[in-house]
Amino acid sequence: MGGDHGPSVTVPAALRFLAEHPAAHLLLVGREDALRPLLGDQAGNPRLRVVHAEEVVGGHESPSLALRNKKDSSMRVAINLVKAGEADACLSAGNTGALMAISRFVLKMLPGIDRPAICVPLPTTQGHTHMLDLGANVDCGPEHLFQFGVMGAMLVEAMEHKERPTVGILNIGEEEIKGNEVVKAAADLLRASGLNFIGNVEGDGIYQGEADIIVCDGFVGNVALKASEGLAQMLGSGLKEEFKRNWLSKLAALVAMPVLNRVKKRFDHRQYNGAVLLGLKGISVKSHGSADVLAFSCAIARAYDAAENRVLERISARMAQLTPAAAGES
Amino acid sequence: MGGDHGPSVTVPAALRFLAEHPAAHLLLVGREDALRPLLGDQAGNPRLRVVHAEEVVGGHESPSLALRNKKDSSMRVAINLVKAGEADACLSAGNTGALMAISRFVLKMLPGIDRPAICVPLPTTQGHTHMLDLGANVDCGPEHLFQFGVMGAMLVEAMEHKERPTVGILNIGEEEIKGNEVVKAAADLLRASGLNFIGNVEGDGIYQGEADIIVCDGFVGNVALKASEGLAQMLGSGLKEEFKRNWLSKLAALVAMPVLNRVKKRFDHRQYNGAVLLGLKGISVKSHGSADVLAFSCAIARAYDAAENRVLERISARMAQLTPAAAGES
Q1: Residues from chain B contacting residue A216 (CB–CB below 8 Å)
Q2: pTM of this prediction?
């Protein structure tokens, strides 16, 4: 029900996902009267079920109020289905804070993990990287950053079948004082963890693909991600304006369009949609609120892949192995 | 002497600056044997003087060692000239940490300012903004962020002749927990300061020009700036690659080139070169190490403008006015 466009995007995206994933089953959670009319000839698809939920969490609603008062919201019902084992993962394009609060309350944390983290893939010159936390936690301690590193590494191992992916920690490069105390202490924990820790990554290293996983505080991560989005938008609209300036540039635009479209496709943020809330005893994924059908179907696919590849089992196993060591270090 | 290219860039940039600023005088500080041969027909220019300094601070040298041991480095001698009142500002493309350490040691802080901050202009969809701190300080307290706000506002008032420029604080937008405690407390101080404080700015707001001055911790600011640089590089090289892919796209590149060059020029980072180290009793400016002649001459012009427009006097006056009030607030 959530996101900027609601069911007009989420339902077609769900149908698209189903067509592309012949083994998948989907539960659409929300107001039946809003969802059913959009199903068309897929209404009878045996891999598709509508689960009615009366309420909707608003985009600007207080997460704590949504948690307390909206027991029959689509978000709450969907997360309950994960808790009950009736769904392997849930996905929402709605209120991030509410999704986080309800997911955490209902699903609880995995053993050894103190806080959930938002993990997103980002494009790089060489392919892509994963960064976490992107905004679930501000004021992280070293042990939290350490846990983010473990969770990110296990996600990449599981979902991308990559052995010993590289883990870096976001830092600044001034020679004398490299980063703050928290980052230094977290780096020590990661260095002793047995993960493939490569040390510091600076801001520009994110997009140079210096590490498969980049660990940071949610405040820093959120700012870096949004600053990048803002810059890309500015450059994109600058490009558009200049190509529209006069008939000559409009002609140039026609000629250059196929190339520009290839560039656009290559870095298309829609294919990177779907932020996994890692650290919970259940898979909960957040889509960008402004997602279109392609973007939302990519996010469904990410939730599906996370469940299919048993990301949580892998995190639990590694944490069980590491926690005594980590406790000894700290 | 500093930067990736040394005098081969800094001297031609100095000559270019002199030609464009008929009232300006320049002191070139460094090894005479390296500088003099590059002066050409300007060797006798009465507005240009070479000040010999025997040593050079290396790009990767420890700032504290450079401060202690290199008393006759070009950097130290240049800053001494500012201290002695023989120069109104100094500029270096060298080791940032060393420039900061030496500037702080020699020039000392302005009354009421605890720490220096690196302030840079950044392009926006509407023009440009100024952001600080970009990496001089990690682990800032609320009073430091508050001081950054005052310094940034006074810089913009003085250099851009803008009355009551808007000041925002970088934050993240999750509804419930907006930012960390430090940012919240700093926002309270800024709100009570009499500055034109507009509240929170998220990462994408930087490039949307939401505020004339954006205040942040040096860690966050450095990461945001470098992440932006990295993203721009990635998009730029992606564009280049796609235009070079085959003869058709190469043809398209030819047609599109004038438009692409206009976009490039519009957001050209070289015109934004020159980070002012604010808060010191003297103007010290850092150029990007990789600056070319155009970029370095822009940075000289920024140092010149900062001195010409009496940025420091304005900061001092405002701090004198605010400090009792700010102390009362905290």
Answers
A1: 223
A2: 0.89
